[in-house]
Amino acid sequence: MMLFKKDMASEIVPTKTEMDVLQVLWQYGPQTVRFVHDKLNEHKEIVQYTSTLKLMQVMKEKGMLDRDETNMKHIYSAAVAEEKVKGNMLGRFVDSMYNGSPSNLMMALLDNDKTSGEELQKIKEMLSKLENK
């Protein structure tokens, strides 16, 4: 049964709220529900502790989180790799919004008012590195 759970990990697409929890755990490492709850409430409208607890329990059942129960306080950690989840989500986004075309996505990003000169320079450097490989 564990094999099935691992196979599903590559297909996990978190909800916005689940992604918020994962972001905290990816940034700070394994933490208690209280820590995650407090971090979420710094940036969002206030939610109840029990809602955060239930969300993290459900995420554990879905295979997104691991829980260490060896101490009095349960410590949760991300069970899915940040790069894998973000890559999967980005791939789905490109497929659905840009017909699977990374160049169309890049053109939309570059034509955006939010792209600064500094960011354009970073993109040029990244492209140059890719060409030299």
Strand content: 5-15%
How far the N terminus sits from the C terminus, by CA atoms, comes to 41 Å
Assembly context of the chains: single chain
Characterize the largest beta sheet: strand count, sense, and whether it forms a barrel: 2 strands, antiparallel
Coarse morphology: elongated
Order of helices and strands: HHHHEEHHH
Strands, total number: 2
Question: How do the helices and strands line up, and which of them pair or pack?
Answer:
Elements (H helix, E strand, L loop, with lengths): L1 H8 L6 H13 L4 H11 L5 H14 L2 E4 L6 E4 L3 H16 L4 H9 L6 H16 L1
Antiparallel strand pairs: 1-2
Helix pairs in contact: 2-3, 3-4
Summarize the structure.
The chain has 133 residues and is mainly alpha-helical. The chain has helices spanning 2-9, 16-28, 33-43, 49-62, 82-97, 102-110, 117-132; strands at residues 65-68, 75-78. The model is unreliable at 1-9 (pLDDT under 50).
Task: Describe what you observe in this structure.
This protein has a two-stranded antiparallel sheet with strand order 1-2. The chain is elongated. The protein starts with a helix and ends with a helix. 65% of the residues lie in helices and 6% in strands. The protein is mainly α.
Features:
single chain; about 130 residues; mainly alpha; two-stranded antiparallel ribbon; 2 strands; about 5% strand; disordered N terminus
